[in-house]
Write a structure and sequence with these properties.
7 helices; 293 residues; three-stranded antiparallel β-sheet; six-stranded antiparallel β-sheet; 20% strand
Length: 293
């Protein structure tokens, strides 16, 4: 589609052999430091960016998900914004790209999540997908009126009746395992959709419908993958954003949050030995994740 001036554009991530690195980035097409985006769109984007940066400084061994959630709430309040209800950040393991573990960070929890999501402590060698969705609206979501094109295989079992469904499901299993995929990835999309319906009906596939804010106002998203290492953490993607391209009439005034954001996001490094350990920390995290799979 035509990305005309003023439209938000976002990007996703990839995986290698089931180990995912997920990322998302929101910008305003056409916005520059000389002509920055303003209004509620700028409010939401700056709130989301600063919330993601605060989370990065808190996802360290010994800290908790509660600390992250509380900091993000203070930041969104400063910009008169709200996190989308029920959005989760989560620990990533092999072939897991969403909240399949008990280690989660929830923003603006629903009533059910308030009872289900546990307080957790971050530990060395864990990997997290930090996902921040911020809106200038109420935070409630609804499905956008468009055709769903992204799906993911579940672990449900069912004997499919249609030949087309069995062929399609076999192709999905062989090509995508448990990772998300788009129907556009199939050479014969019409034939693929014939087999898709029965798979979705019997919950062999989970749909990812496009969501929007219930009030129809802008939503900003910043997402990155972070490794928890002995001397801090390593953000392996994301982080590219020029705050000068957005101008808000609101600002953060909470001293604790300002002090947090003023901290360096780089992991601590002392002598040569510490630097060598930090350099190999990412490899150690991947090795441990593989052993746990």
């Amino acid at each position: 589609r035509d990305l005309s001036s003023g439209i938000n554009a976002e990007y996703g991530g990839v995986h290698i052999d089931g180990y995912a690195a997920v990322t998302a980035h929101t910008l305003v097409v056409g916005a520059t430091p000389e002509q920055p985006a303003t209004g509620v769109k700028a409010d939401a984007i700056l709130a989301a960016h600063n919330a993601a940066e605060a989370a990065l400084r808190l996802i360290k061994a010994g800290n908790t998900n509660v600390q992250v959630s509380e900091a993000i709430q203070k930041i969104t309040d400063s910009y008169k914004c709200t996190p989308l209800e029920g959005m989760l950040s989560y620990q990533i393991k092999r072939y897991q790209t969403e909240a399949d573990t008990d280690k989660q960070i929830v923003l603006n929890p629903s009533e059910a999540q308030k009872k289900e999501v546990k307080d957790i402590e971050f530990a060395v060698h864990e990997v997290y997908a930090m996902d921040v969705f911020i809106t200038s609206g109420s935070g409630k979501t609804k499905e956008y009126n468009t055709t769903t094109t992204v799906y993911r295989r579940t672990e449900e079992v069912y004997q499919l009746k249609m030949k087309a469904s069995r062929a399609f499901y076999s192709d999905v299993t062989n090509r995508f395992t448990l990772m998300p995929f788009t129907i556009r990835a199939f050479e014969e999309e019409t034939k693929a959709r014939m087999g898709l319906k029965e798979c979705v009906t019997h919950e062999l596939l989970q749909a990812y419908p496009v969501q929007q804010d219930g009030d129809g106002v802008p939503v900003a998203q910043f997402k990155y993958t972070v490794l928890v290492v002995p001397n801090g953490n390593i953000r392996i993607n994301g982080g590219l954003f020029d705050t000068a391209t957005c101008k808000s009439e609101h600002k953060i005034e909470d001293k604790a949050i300002l002090d947090l954001l003023a901290q360096s996001a780089n992991r601590k490094a002392g002598g040569k030995k510490k630097k060598k350990k930090a350099k190999s920390a990412a490899a150690e995290a991947v090795t441990e994740a593989a052993e746990q799979s």
